[in-house]
Amino acid sequence: MSKISKFFKGGGSAASKGRGGPSAQEALARLRETEEMLSKKQVFLEARIERELAAARQHGTKNRRAALQALKRKKRYEKQLSQIDGTLSTIEFQREALENSHTNTEVLKNMGYAAQAMKKVHENMDLNKIDDLMQDITEQQDVAQEISDAISNRAAFGEEFDEDELMAELEELEQEELNKGMRDVRLPSVPSTSLPSRPVRQNSHVSHELHSCIIRVQHATQRRAEDEDEMKKLAAWAS
User: Fold this and answer.
1) Average of per-residue pLDDT across 197-214
2) CA–CA gap between residue 45 and residue 80 (Å, rounded)
3) With the CA atoms of 187, 188, 193 and 195 taken in that order, what torsion angle do they form, in degrees rounded to the nearest 10?
4) Each residue's pLDDT tens digit, 58-69
5) Which of 76, 147, 159, 188 gives 20 to 30 Å between its CA and that of 234?
6) Average pLDDT, stretch 156-183?
7) pLDDT confidence bin for 192, thresholds 50/70/90
8) At 163, is the secondary structure helix, strand, or coil?
9) DSSP 8-state secondary structure symbol assigned to residue 86
10) Distance CA 101, CA 99 (A)
11) Which family, according to the similarity comment (predicted)?
12) Residue 134 burial by CB count (10 A; 0-12/13-18/19+): exposed, middle or buried?
């Protein structure tokens, strides 16, 4: 009995018959066996076709009857080969469909397991208790934020003084210092005679006074900038 006959007449095992049908793995294994058998048959038929074609060439016009018989056998083998090609295509399609069905079944089975696990996890959960717990957490977070804000606020030392008045007084002092520095500066008098065509060397005394004046102005500007920085730091600390 051929393998195909066994597949259709005595295909199922005892265990498969007891369950009412083969499993997906068993059916896939049988389909792969059938594909392997038909592939071997293809190789055999291709070899026979080549042999009959060689025989027809060998006989040729010498023995036309033998040559025609060889060609007839070649045609039969080619027809069988074509039928096997169609059968293999059908089996391949069926195998792919069965593999996809088996995959989908396994996916659905695992998804069912996951759903059961989630249901088991949620069995002991009370939504009312969860809401109460989240409300308690929110309240405690608000309390913690209020405590943090209270600790981080600086104590209001020295609020009995008006900050605007202090800043105005400081600006007056700085302006007085700047005016004083400007009064001490002595600029050189403008000469009555016309300047020479060629530049002459400036008087060393005048250059020294001008240099001293520039230094005093720079020092006054620097002190004012430093005082402004100090006042900004003081205002930032008091705020």
Assistant:
1) 57
2) 8
3) -90
4) 888 788 888 889
5) 147
6) 72
7) low
8) helix
9) H
10) 5
11) Belongs to the SNF7 family.
12) exposed
Could you tell me if residue 183 is left (phi over 0), alpha (psi between -120 and 50 degrees) or otherwise beta?
Answer: alpha
Cα–Cα distance measured from residue 206 to residue 202, given in angstroms and rounded to the nearest whole number:
7
Give the residue carrying structure tokens 């593999």: 99
pLDDT at 13: 46
Residue 51 pLDDT exceeds 50: yes
Domains and CATH numbers, the chain: 22-124 (1.10.287.1060)
Contact 42, 81 (CB under 8 A): yes
C-beta separation of 53 from 74 below 8 A: yes
C-beta separation of 35 from 93 below 8 A: no
For a pLDDT cut of 90, what percent of the chain falls above it?
A: 21
Distance CA 5, CA 7 (A): 5
In terms of DSSP H, where are the helices of 22-126? 24-59, 64-122
Cβ proximity of 29 and 3 under 8 Å: no
105-133 average pLDDT score: 85
Provide the whole-model pTM.
0.40
Q: Which of 172, 184, 191 shows the shortest CA–CA distance to 216?
A: 184
